[in-house]
Specification:
The chain has 229 residues and is an alpha/beta fold. 33% of the residues lie in helices and 18% in strands.
């Protein structure tokens, strides 16, 4: 680990400890080595640094919007942590290649299927493109959610630390039963099944588009450890 990364990690940990009370015990279930996908809800830009410093010394990277490289402060984090820039609004083939290379090298890759932040903290509809890496690489997906960070600004004004909860679900892989090619309809169903794996970890009031758990299916979800077929 380079000196710049050590300093940045230490400062990030210090700021999080000073401002938050983090319940992250379940993160111990995430493996020490990849390849794996870390599927998260997306509420604030703070979640990236939070996950990163809590998961180190694991080798971890993530996708982040290209605009974060435009500002010197956020660019410092992106470049130091080797985050992969992605151009939003379509399939970014360069970002896809970098992601596949990272998985080939044993990294844990963080991703948010919603694509954009939920300003209210509730789950938004997942984007089907999020299934591409999972189906091409057949790596385990670890669902992880957090809540509490939206209260950070208010609590800072009151000189209070913010309780932050992190929950990790059962790892799974995505697969289509049978030998037929995966269609756009399949990918829509796949991403919804992925998002329900996040929804069941969240408090009911934060499940958003996936609040009705009676609609949850697992036709494309193969939980790790379950018998194949």
């Amino acid at each position: 680990m380079k000196l710049k990364e050590r300093v940045l990690n230490a400062l990030t940990r210090l700021m999080l400890r000073m401002t938050c009370r983090i319940d992250a015990a379940q993160m111990q279930t995430i493996p020490r080595e990849g390849p794996a996908l870390l599927l998260s809800n997306h509420v604030t830009n703070i979640e990236g640094p939070l996950y990163y410093v809590l998961l180190r010394p694991r080798r971890i990277t993530a996708l982040a919007k290209r605009e974060l490289w435009d500002k010197p402060f956020t660019r410092l984090f992106m470049e130091t942590w080797n985050i992969i820039p992605v151009v939003r609004g379509g399939v970014d083939s360069r970002a896809m290649r970098e992601c596949m290379r990272a998985l080939d090298e044993g990294y844990i890759l963080g991703m948010a299927a919603e694509g954009t932040r939920s300003k209210t903290g509730v789950l938004r509809q997942g984007q089907p493109g999020a299934t591409l890496l999972a189906t091409r690489k057949n790596v385990p997906i670890y669902p992880i959610v957090h809540w509490g960070l939206l209260d950070l600004k208010t609590n800072l004004k009151r000189l209070r630390r913010t309780p932050v909860s992190i929950r990790v679900g059962r790892p799974f892989r995505l697969c289509k039963p049978g030998d037929e090619a995966i269609t756009a309809v399949d990918r829509r169903k796949m991403v919804d099944e992925m998002m329900y794996q996040l929804a069941i970890l969240l408090p009911a009031e934060l499940r958003g588009d996936y609040a009705d758990l009676s609609r949850m299916t697992t036709a494309y979800v193969q939980f790790c450890g379950d018998a194949e077929g």
